[in-house]
Amino acid sequence: MRPDTPAENVDHTAEAARLERTAGLYPEDTEALLLRAAAHLELAGDRPTATKLYDRLLSSPEALDHPHLVRALKASNLWEYGHEAEARAIIDGVRTAAPRDPAPWVIVAEALESHDELEAAHDTFTEAVRLLLTDVPQPPQPTHPLLFGRHRVRRMLGRSHDEWDALADTVHSLPVSLDELHDPKRVWSLGSENPAELEAEILRLRAELGAYREALSRPFPVAILHWPATELTELLEAYPTLAEEYPSHEDHLTSIERALRELAASGTPNLGIVTGTVPSYEAFAASEGSSPGDATLLPQYATTLAARGRAVAWPPQNGSNCWCGSGRTYAQCHGSPA
Q1: Phi, psi (5° rounding) for residue 329?
Q2: Which among 78, 89, 103, 302 could disulfide-bond with 225, CB atoms 3.0 to 4.6 Å apart, if both were Cys?
Q3: Distance between CA atoms of 155 and 164, rounded to whole angstroms?
Q4: pLDDT for res 5
Q5: Which pLDDT does position 298 carry in this prediction?
Q6: Gene3D superfamilies, per this entry (predicted)?
Q7: What count of other Cβ atoms lies within 10 Å of the Cβ of residue 323?
């Protein structure tokens, strides 16, 4: 399914089944593919089957990349079809685990908020913000929903602005302010008979919806293939004909950054990087009936990885680590003008 496919034209049950089949072909991507399948099942209203997919992931002998995210999604889904006690227990477990990933915090806090547990939602958002953003000079983009969610809940609770609300205001980029977007009185304007009030509210809702769509449905990225040093060494030892493509690992990293900057300068949007592994590349070559030593397979492999959701957006957000895996921030590594 293309990211820009209208929701009303999607057969969510069929899409979930397709993603499950794809997960069977690419075991290394099972977690990401089954999470997407579960999301389609939730949209189709088949929440019990979605729960089975979450349980399948959680019971897998393979270690999950994002176990707290899977638990949070399961809790949110369970609560929606009447399993409140189990959902609350899972949410408490996620909060106790204190994951460093903002996504599970957002999901469990919004689950509490959507069921009118505003105090608990506020406490959850606050725990996450303090854990992830204390002494952080610039909040990374994935943490923005925590700040926005906390601001929204505080407005509904009638709390006054604090320093975290002020930070939320600084990272908010829409023309409509957060105070307006999160004003509890907005709901009353939808029942107004005053055309001016209705028109103003429609404009605010359009702005909010535009931001939501932008966050959830970005166009397919143009992805550049990246090989970590150990993988590139293994690749060239097994397939020396590819040495012409990769004279050295340092040249490889430099060429990636240069190519991405040139694409950005030409106006190409939504650039990304995919990281390859030798076993995955060999499996891809076998599926294409070609030799891994064929350099023409490399861009096709990158495109396939991107289509499977493996692309990481470039350039990294302010303060984020560099895409190359050096452990330094992007600004101090390949993002440096030098």
Answers
A1: -70, 155
A2: 302
A3: 13
A4: 43
A5: 92
A6: Tetratricopeptide repeat domain
A7: 24
Residue 102 neighbours by CB under 8 Å, 6+ apart: 128, 132, 142, 143, 145, 146
pTM over 0.90: no
Return the H-helix or E-strand segment holding 216.
helix 195-216
Tokens of 147: 């700040």
Alpha helices in 47-162 (DSSP H): 47-58, 67-80, 84-97, 102-114, 118-133, 144-157
Strands 271-275 and 312-313, sheet pairing: antiparallel
Distance CA 44, CA 232 (A): 43
Q: SS3 of 330, please?
A: helix
Distance CA 323, CA 315 (A): 8
Task: Decide: 271 and 221 in contact? Cβ < 8 Å.
Answer: yes
Peptide bond into 315 cis (omega under 30): yes
- Report CA Rg, the chain: 22
Q: Which residues on neighbouring strands pair with residue 273, listed in sequence order?
A: 224, 312
* Interatomic CA distance for residues 301 and 293, integer angstroms: 13
**pLDDT at residue 1, rounded to an integer:** 37
Task: Report residues of the chain scoring pLDDT below 50.
Answer: 1-7, 215-218
Q: For position 192, what pLDDT does the model report?
A: 64
Q: How far apart are CA 9 and CA 275, in angstroms?
A: 32
Cα dihedral sign for 179, 181, 182, 185?
Answer: positive
How many alpha carbons fall within 13 Å on the CB side of residue 117?
Answer: 15
Amino acid at 111: A
